[in-house]
From TrEMBL:
It is a multi-pass membrane protein. This is Permease. Belongs to the autoinducer-2 exporter (AI-2E) (TC 2.A.86) family. PANTHER family: PERMEASE PERM-RELATED (PTHR21716:SF53), TRANSMEMBRANE PROTEIN (PTHR21716). It comes from the Bacteria. GO terms for cellular component: plasma membrane.
Amino acid sequence: MGLFFKSRKHESAPELPEWLTTRDGFPFYIKAPMVLIGLYLFFHILDSLQEIIVPFAFAGLIAILLNPIYNRFQRWKFNKIVAIVLTIFIAILVVGGIMFFLSSQIVQFGDMVPQLEKKTMKLLDNLQEWLSTTFGISTEKQMSMLDEAINNSRTYVGKTVNTLFGIISFFVLIPLYIFLLLFYKPLILNFIFEVFDENNSDQVAEILQETKGAVQSYIVGLMIETTIIAALNSVALLILGVPYALLLGVIGAILNLIPYIGGIIAIALPVLISFITKDGYTTPLLIIGAYTVIQFLDNNIIVPRVVSSKVSVNALISILVVLLGGTLWGVSGMFLSIPFVAVLKIIFDRIDELKPWGKLLGDTMPEDAPVQVVNPREADENKQSLF
């Protein structure tokens, strides 16, 4: 009996097939669950700490954007603290000017609220009657569906407000974070270089430089694109005689910053206003046509030439990360998702083990993709031609 157990003890473990073993030698059925657990913990932490991470992430992006202005003040021999304060003051003036313009338009919009409410109720009654007669949906069921949609939207907006600490984050936390990030910039950069081996210092410097350039070009490009789209939207709505064309045009341009989803909402707002303020369907159809043309110009001319980001993320990944960011952090997550993935792609492209992930995020199609997977029929034909 002892000999039996001894011989069993010294037996070598059966070898796994190559397709069940990852490159680092770990079995796939062990590594895959560990990766999933790690991803779950990662997103759980992001969700739990959103009130801290989201303002800090916005501050990081804005600090990178304002860094050239800060460096200009430094070259002019300004004191470090004075240079940072002046940089933040310029940013506050720009944001304040935009907020003042929007608020003045919203005040004018408030004068029309009673008329809008009256027309909206009439349209809702007509819609309820049409749904009942056409699809057989009872009024009670329609109201329950509407209440559920309103509750979901409140939760979504509430998550965004809670994420940003409300107004306090915008006017206190984010400027404070920007000040500290610019002030401690040498300390942070020195830490990043010291964490990695000296042999990789050139690679780290390249990643940092390219990340800074990509974020700056992306944000500046978005600002220029937003200005152009706001002008085009406003001109189109003015020509069509839609009330509050400037306000709707600017809001549509801001919503356009949210990839894919924002463009749909941007079209829905003026269409809804035209339904309420005008009779017939001519103006709403013309608005849809005008916005479709503007979206075509935006996607095919403005974005490729103006939003000259150094990192291109394919449409599939863009939609997925925007939806994931919205689920995780609300509207704030939608805005942060694309820059975050762009930075990840820069890092992945510089690390050999992560290069496949960088290619997956990009929009460059591989020229040497395996024919057996991409086009099995062509592979079979080539195989038969050999015989």
